[in-house]
Amino acid sequence: MPSRRFKQVDVFTEKPFLGNPVAVVIDSAGLDGAEMQRIAAWTNLSETTFVLPPSSRDADYQLRIFSPKQELPFAGHPTLGSAHAVIESGFATTHDGRLRQECLAGLIDLTIEETAGGKRIFLDAPDAKISVVDDNNARWMQTGLGLMQPFAHPPARVDVGVVWLVAELADSKAVAALEPEMNALSNLSAATNAAGITVFGKSDDESSRLHVRSFAPALGVPEDPVCGSGNASVGAYLVYTGLVKSYGGEFIARQGMQVGRDGQVSVRIDQHGVRIGGYAITCVDGTLRTE
User: Fold this and answer.
1) Do 103 and 155 have their domain in common?
2) What is the number of structural domains in the chain?
3) Separation of alpha carbons 25 and 7, rounded Å
4) pLDDT-derived band of residue 56, with 50, 70 and 90 as boundaries?
5) What mean pLDDT, rounded, does the chain reach?
6) Statement to judge: residues 151 and 110 lie in one domain
7) d(CA 111, CA 123)
8) Could you report the per-residue pLDDT of 92-146, keeping only the tens digit for each?
9) Residues facing 285 on adjacent strands
10) Rounded percentage of the chain residues whose pLDDT exceeds 70
11) How far is CA 192 from its chain centroid?
């Protein structure tokens, strides 16, 4: 029976079971899209990725990314977790500490930093396309999140290859207290052609600058434990609104505490754009039977 190398990688953590897991099928040549989608539904994780030889001379490998319900052009934690897996497995090798991934969103550059805690991998987020959410959808978003007060700053639709509706809340306590109505958020996501809603608020702890939560029920992921594209969208939103002056150009964002995780996302913002990164650790290493 044919088998393929398989890893389950926990992303945005140095300790197992505190980050966001991604399933990575390393030897994916010969699988078609329908087979990949069935495997992604079976793993039942927020994303499953499939590593293929690159079709572009400029890339080190090709990646296809699936939620339980559909293929995605780009996603943050699957990109970082898959980079960890291809390095660890030897599928691809770094060049001067860099890798280049090919995906539906284009070519994604990754940088690998050697630290005392191990390899920390950063990706250059795709350039964001941003527009203000109109008043009707902003009210829909407020109601779906269960907020009594309107947003202090207008929420925005942020497209980084994956689209998020992004808003700032009063603080991390307001973020933690959310009990959203998932059907409303799913319908809003469908109406705005967005993956979901990402919110953030200023932290009062010593380990991070802000706390984040991401909700994507339309993709079959009610709450994403630690969302790379969501955090990249927050970074783009900070630049767009001028709030980067309040939060700074380099910080740690925490996410996942409400679902039993504690992901740590490194965010860097400069004139070249937004970069997100973090550590990753392999929790499952084996083979996957596909026939």
Assistant:
1) no
2) 2
3) 7
4) very high
5) 96
6) no
7) 6
8) 999 999 999 999 999 999 999 999 989 999 999 999 999 999 999 999 999 999 9
9) 7
10) 100
11) 19
Which CATH number do you get for residue 203?
3.10.310.10
Residue range(s) defining the domain that contains residue 29 = 3-125+278-289
43 in the same domain as 95: yes
pLDDT digits 0-9 by tens, 211-256? 999 999 999 899 999 999 999 999 999 999 999 999 999 999 999 9
Question: HSE on the CB side for 39, CA within 13 Å?
Answer: 25
- 47 catalytic residue (yes or no): yes
> 2: buried, middle or exposed (CB in 10 Å: 19+, 13-18, 0-12)?
exposed
pLDDT attached to residue 2 = 77
Domain shared by 68 and 163, yes or no: no
Same domain flag for 94 and 53: yes
Active site residue: 47, 102, 168, 223, which one?
47
pTM (two decimals): 0.93
254 and 186 in a common domain: yes
Phi, psi of 204 (to 5 degrees): -115, 15
Q: Are residues 153 and 186 in the same domain?
A: yes
* Model pLDDT, residue 291: 81
Q: Does 157 lie in the same domain as 91?
A: no
